[in-house]
């Protein structure tokens, strides 16, 4: 079964999950050959080991407390904070508390996001 993604012109609710955060799961919102937007949900204590994205990424914290380690230092994101990383920049992350954020991946010209 294919994962449903938003269609052009469709309104997407990305408000904080609040009381529903603990029971929510990560889900892909938009996927095109050049842009992917994912609503990431991380429980407190979750660690994502160092990795790289093929394209540039923008992370917008919606709620919680997440630490991205990149460019040799930790960068704390809380609700309303945004982080941009160049394509291929190694990064790791850890959720200090239940958290959600939007992850946008923009493909390099001539490449797809996946």
Model description:
This protein is mainly β. The chain has a domain at 33-106: Jelly Rolls (Sandwich). The protein contains no helices and 7 strands. It has strands at 27-31, 35-42, 47-51, 56-70, 73-78, 82-85, 91-106. Strands 1, 2, 3, 4, 5, 6 and 7 form a 7-stranded antiparallel β-sheet that branches. A hairpin with a 3-residue loop joins strand 1 and strand 2 (35-42).
CATH superfamily of the domain at 33-106: Jelly Rolls
The helix content, as a percent range, equals under 10%
**In angstroms, what separates the terminal alpha carbons?**
18 Å
Mean pLDDT, all residues: 93
CATH class type of the domain at 33-106: Mainly Beta
What is the helix/strand order? EEEEEEE
Radius of gyration: 14 Å
User: What general form does the structure show?
Assistant: globular
The CATH architecture of the domain at 33-106 comes to Sandwich
Q: What is the number of strand segments?
A: 7
The total of helices stands at 0
Beta-strand fraction estimate: over 45%
Would you tell me the structural class of the helices and strands?
mainly beta
Largest sheet properties: 7 strands, antiparallel
Query: What are the segments in which pLDDT stays under 50 over at least 5 consecutive residues?
Result: none
Here the CATH topology of the domain at 33-106 equals: Jelly Rolls
